[in-house]
Structures are given as structure tokens and as C-alpha cells.
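Let's practice the habit of predicting before peeking. Look at the sequence and jot down your guess about where helices and strands might fall. Then scroll down.
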Amino acid sequence: MSISPLNLDSRIMSRNPQLDISISRGDVYQEGIGSIEQASVFGEAALQEILKDKKKQLARYVRTRSDNPESKEKHPVSFDNEALRRMHVTSVEDSLYELRNAFALSAYHFWETSIYRWYLEDNPREFSKNLGPYAKLKSVMAELHKRDPGIPNAPDSHLEAVCRLANILKHTSSTSCEWMKNHAPPELQSIKDQIGQMPPGRSVRLTNEQLTWIFNIIRRSGPGYRAN
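Done guessing? Here is the structure:
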């Protein structure tokens, strides 16, 4: 067995190097995905504040404008300004969905890159390697578990759904869209319903609750997970 040393403080290392590596991997993994989720929370809160402000501006404008029948002819610019303010609200709402989609992708890619990192730690002579699609990464995870029992033998059963969602978000994969139509878990039912209904240029839309669910799936798919 060949495991590259990690930069652990010798003062906190036990006499079991494998145990130290397992603990370190678990801590790093859970801290990493937790940090990504925290960033998503901050981003969501910031955009919600912007959206709240834009809606206030629109409401204030509508409340104070002239509503007589001749206003549109006499003051066409004021009506254009209202349309512009409504567009601003829509733009921020769209940005919220884009933010959630970006963090969903980031969460899944964090799991992928973690598998690669652990594989290369255990195989230091391999500088680069394409480990293949999800099914292959899942089998690599099982092999890693044999060397390091701290790594789960398999990811959470719903991780494939997260993988398929990532493919839909990134590539609008027709294969993954078809998979989602037939196998979407209850938590992603709204995604299934959106497939085939999306206008050109727009991706599926995640709710904040779905993004939280995705983060939990990623947590359970790596080492160091502790159920609350």
C-alpha cells in the first residue's frame, strides 16, 4: 500500500498513520463542502436583498406615477421606466436561479475532484489520469475504501441523480434529461417536470431547498460524515 504523506502536524498525529489519513480526509472533505454551502448561503442572502430593493423601487415608482388615461401619450418615458424596473426585478430573479445552479455544479465537482485527489494520493506515480464517468468514479471509490475504510464503500444512493442534474445544468445532456424523466427522486420532481418545458437558452431552475438537499447528498457521499 502506498499512501503519500499529508501535511499533518506531528503533534496531533497518532501512532496509526492510516487513521491519521482517514481523519484528515474526512475533516478536509466535510469542511470543504461546508464552506461551499456557506458561500451559497451568503450569495443567496445578498441577491435576496438586491431583489427586495428592486421590488421596493418598482412599487414606489408605480405608486407615485400619474395614472390618468393620457399619461402614456403625454409621458411615454415614464412607462418605459416602469418596464425597465420590471426587467431589473426579473433579471435578479434569474440571477438567483443561476447562482443555485452554479453551486449545485460546484458541489458535485467537489465530490469528483475529491475522488481524483484521493486516488492520486494512493497512486503517487500517476501524475494525471482520466477516471471516467460517474459509474467509474463509483468503482474507484470502492477501491479507495479497501485501502482507507474512512472513505465510504459507495456514495449516497441519490448521488447519481445529482450527477445527472449536473450534466443537465452544464451540457443540457439529452441522456441525463431522459434519465431524470424516468428516475428522478421525489426531491427533484420539479426538475423532471421542467424538462421539455424550458424555453431556448434557459436551464432548469433549482429551489433553495433542492440546493440544500444536494449539499446533504454530497456530504453523505464522502468521509467524515456525521448525521446530526
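How did you do? The two ends are 34 Å apart (CA to CA).
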